[in-house]
Amino acid sequence: MKILGFAGSTSSKSINKKLVSFTLDQISDSSLETELIDLNDYKLPMFNVDVEEKDGYPDNAYKFLEKLNEADALIVSMAEHNNSYAAEVKNLLDWCSRIELGFFGEKPMLLMSTSPGGYGGGNVLEASKQRFPKFKADIIRTFKLPSFNDNFSEDHGITDEENRSEHSKALNQFLDHLSK
Ligand SMILES: Cc1cc2nc3c(=O)[nH]c(=O)nc-3n(C[C@H](O)[C@H](O)[C@H](O)COP(=O)(O)O)c2cc1C
């Protein structure tokens, strides 16, 4: 079984990517293959119906969908910009939705967010929780890590005990679901 992870961010220093990477590192079951991808490898023109009509769908949108299709389950952490998706990520979602509305393909998803703020990206998490089922994501658990800079270290991952335990519970429930 393959678990694909990605952050809903194209920042080279993405804290959400760090959270996804930490999460994948916690998976010790050797029967589970994990892969972390970077949305910078799937750059797309800005979506516009005229561009769509003129040029069709970009190769990178198909390349991203192929990655999703190869996976059995998804671990995603969304960056929050002005209470919602980061623009490049919204753009990717828009392109994908035009090719196949249900592009998450009923795959189980652990959906997360983090931000330097005290709400941990809770607004984009909520927006994603509302919308991703339309894209046929099967959201099994959610987790948000508030105040990333206080609660996460490069060497140890989530340092705050309560958040670490909450994260571990969410991940284990997600993995239990996969093993059923
Ligand atoms: C344009 C912009 C808007 C932002 N808006 C929010 C916000 O609404 N809520 C929040 O918690 N953080 C906000 N932030 C801070 C981001 O959460 C922070 O940059 C975080 O590192 C983004 O995640 P990433 O590092 O994975 O890209 C914003 C940052 C930018 C650049």
**CATH level-four homologous superfamily name:** Flavodoxin domain
Structural class from helices and strands? Answer: alpha/beta
Order of helices and strands: EHEHHEEEHEHEHEEH
Number of self-contained structural domains? 1
Beta strand count: 9
The rough form would be described as globular
Please give the oligomerization state of what you see: single chain
Main beta-sheet annotation:
5 strands, parallel
Low-pLDDT windows of residues: none
Q: What is the CATH architecture descriptor?
A: 3-Layer(aba) Sandwich
The CA-CA distance between the termini, in Å, is 12 Å
Text of the CATH class: Alpha Beta
Strand percentage lies at 15-25%
Summarize model confidence as the mean pLDDT. Answer: 98
What percent of the residues sit in helical stretches (DSSP H or I)? 40-55%
Strands side by side in the biggest sheet: 2-1-3-6-7
**Small molecules bound:** flavin mononucleotide
CATH fold name: Rossmann fold
Radius of gyration computed on alpha carbons: 16 Å
Number of helices: 7
